[in-house]
Write a structure and sequence with these properties.
It is a single chain. The protein is an all-alpha fold. Helix content is 65%, strand content 0%. It contains 9 helices and no strands. α4 runs antiparallel to α5, α4 runs parallel beside α7 and α7 crosses α8. The radius of gyration is 16 Å and the shape is globular.
């Protein structure tokens, strides 16, 4: 990995520190260093400590989009992060059936409904959902949530296009939960 620019080596070093290894997805993105740098910066902003969207809600949304798009790498990584953020395994296992689960708050259900609607690019988001989401999220929060959803959709599509496989970060097999 010495042929990559120094700023990419820094990102790889940070990933090794956090995950124990370089993410396979990152190694693929890094083949275009400037795009990877921009993508890394965007993710850093979306997942910052000062985000108006809580870490647990961000994780729920990321994993649900990963499930919808069938990105097993993303499911593995994001479920691992979600569990580290305090989401209980029972809730993680129920995410694919959140609509019928009592484990999710109305607030979480609204965010997940919105994430699913945005992810389904064949549909237009209805006024009822727009009104519902506007009652629970400020404009700034809605921009951040929508950006997070768009980012994860891009990420899952990229990883699926390149056949990026899971790296075994999650202690449970989430494939069975789809």
């Amino acid at each position: 990995m010495t042929s990559v620019p120094f700023y990419i080596r820094i990102i790889f070093w940070l990933q090794k520190r956090k995950y124990g290894e370089v993410l396979k997805s990152a190694a693929q993105w890094a083949k275009s260093p400037k795009i990877f740098l921009a993508l890394s910066a965007l993710y850093g902003v979306l997942d910052r400590k000062g985000s108006p969207i809580s870490p647990s809600l961000r994780s729920l949304v990321l994993v649900r989009i990963s499930q919808i798009n069938g990105c097993y790498f993303c499911i593995d990584l994001n479920t691992s992060v979600m569990l580290s953020r305090g989401i209980e395994i029972e809730k993680a296992l129920s995410l694919g059936n959140w609509k019928n689960s009592q484990l999710f708050s109305d607030f979480e259900k609204t965010a997940l409904e919105y994430a699913e609607a945005v992810t389904d690019s064949s549909k237009i988001i209805g006024q009822e959902l727009k009104d519902k989401i506007a009652k629970q999220f400020s404009e700034t929060e809605l921009v951040e949530l929508t950006a997070l959803i768009a980012y994860q959709n891009m990420s899952t599509k990229f990883n699926n296009a390149f056949g990026i496989e899971p790296q075994g970060f999650c202690p449970i097999d989430m494939k069975k939960q789809l």
